[in-house]
Amino acid sequence: MMRRSFQVAARLGHRRALLRTPCILPGLDPAAAFGSSTDSLVSRFCPVKTDLKDYALPNASWCPDMLSLYQEFLEKTKSDGWVKLPSFKSNRDHIQGLKLPSGLVAASDKSDWRIFTRCIQVEGQGYEYVIFFHPFKKKSVCLFQPGPYLEGPPGFAHGGSLAAMMDETFSKTAYLAGEGLFTLNLNIRFKNLIPVGSLAVLNVQVEKIEDQKLYMSCITQSRDQETVYAKSSGVFLQWQLEEESSPESL
Amino acid sequence: MMRRSFQVAARLGHRRALLRTPCILPGLDPAAAFGSSTDSLVSRFCPVKTDLKDYALPNASWCPDMLSLYQEFLEKTKSDGWVKLPSFKSNRDHIQGLKLPSGLVAASDKSDWRIFTRCIQVEGQGYEYVIFFHPFKKKSVCLFQPGPYLEGPPGFAHGGSLAAMMDETFSKTAYLAGEGLFTLNLNIRFKNLIPVGSLAVLNVQVEKIEDQKLYMSCITQSRDQETVYAKSSGVFLQWQLEEESSPESL
């Protein structure tokens, strides 16, 4: 099953979509391009009440720049249409009640699964980040502070840690903006090194949704925008998660 | 200083190279393209005796595929020109006695610095990998087994974890093949998801060295080569590390 490539999956998925749902092909309105609206995806993704720990909250390791920009965006959630995304330990927590498309069977043992960008739980040592998403504008801002466990060249973040942060921000944006589920392409041009412990701001924008693919861009900068750390683009494949069967329906 | 971009750095570095060393521009012989030969770089990178822990050694978490391919390549180090690269906790350990080029001042406090791909020290939970390098052929093979802390979609490795593994393998290859020091570009096409706990094999090849840049390609596959997980390319900037001043010379 795993040998089914994304390209084949895209064709199969498209056929399934045609069979199952009204024939709404990706069109001019990204919100209606796929099965679910952005609003319903965001509502489900951001539960009002949950016992799960949200890792995207300020802690003592956050630098002043990160803290103040967080507060700034938090204000914008009240009146400017921005949504602060929660960040749980695993994507399994994010998609409760849903499952991967048929053919992609997830291991279900009792392992301590963690989403990669939350793999280090000691505050300040690994990934510190929070993502804000704007449903109407289809854009995201990620505040990212790499810790000393993310080192590449001495004193600076590993290029791979920024690549992963980009992929994760693209991923959440793609899912909420149009059920983008799998990374097809990631292209990064690195410009400057990010000093460990400092703030990098990722600005992600959905550029278009076409042929079951979301095309996104990202620019990563210092807060004052004077230093560009990297520019990147990402392409994600749209694919609907499936509802998990409830015990009653078995 | 940090606002000096890699592009500007490349020009400055080139000028410095012209002033300091015989004018050997990147040419047909990659080994002689920059300051140090691959053999001398490899010798320094692979100390015969060291007290540092090498994380690229088999442990109980390695799957049978990973173990047997490791043994296969270990045999090739005896007669076929392959070199097993050690993997220390931090790049600071790898470049002892050397430092980043002037202008890139590393933080030097007592933090617990870790190279990103060794950020999780619990065996089997995070990155398990070992890189073999062939100095003459300018290629590398990385055996990579992602653990449950590297999860993206439930049960599968996060795309960003593979991106980081590619960047790290490119990075070590670029350094040893021609003093490639900074990632300029990373372009990845994802084809299939890697199940957590299984083996993925990265085959990296230096394609050319030109204008102070190393151009590399990578294909990531299952061991039987029947499943391609991803294809990628990477461009690295050549730059010489500098000798650290010994106390006597101050």
Architecture overview:
Two copies of one chain form a homodimer. With 250 residues, chain A is an alpha+beta fold. Chain A contains five helices and nine strands; from the N terminus they run αααβαβββαβββββ. Chain A has a seven-stranded antiparallel sheet with strand order 1-3-4-6-7-8-5, sandwiched between helices. In chain A, a hairpin with a 2-residue loop joins β6 and β7. In chain A, α2 (38-45) packs across α5 (159-178). Chain A starts with 5 loop residues before the first helix and ends in a 7-residue tail after the last strand. In chain A, 41% of the residues are buried. Residues 12-32 of chain A have low confidence and may be disordered. Chains A and B meet through α5 and β5 of A and α5 and β5 of B. β5 of chain A pairs antiparallel with β5 of chain B. Chains A, B: One of its GO terms (molecular function) is long-chain fatty acyl-CoA hydrolase activity. Chains A, B: Belongs to the THEM4/THEM5 thioesterase family. Chains A, B: InterPro entries: HotDog_dom_sf, Thioestr_dom. Chains A, B: It is found in: Mitochondrion.
What does this entry show, briefly?
Two copies of one chain form a homodimer. Chain A contains five helices and nine strands. Chain A is an alpha+beta fold and 250 residues long.
Give short descriptive properties of this protein:
homodimer, about 250 residues, alpha+beta, seven-stranded antiparallel β-sheet, two-stranded antiparallel ribbon, 5 helices, 9 strands, globular
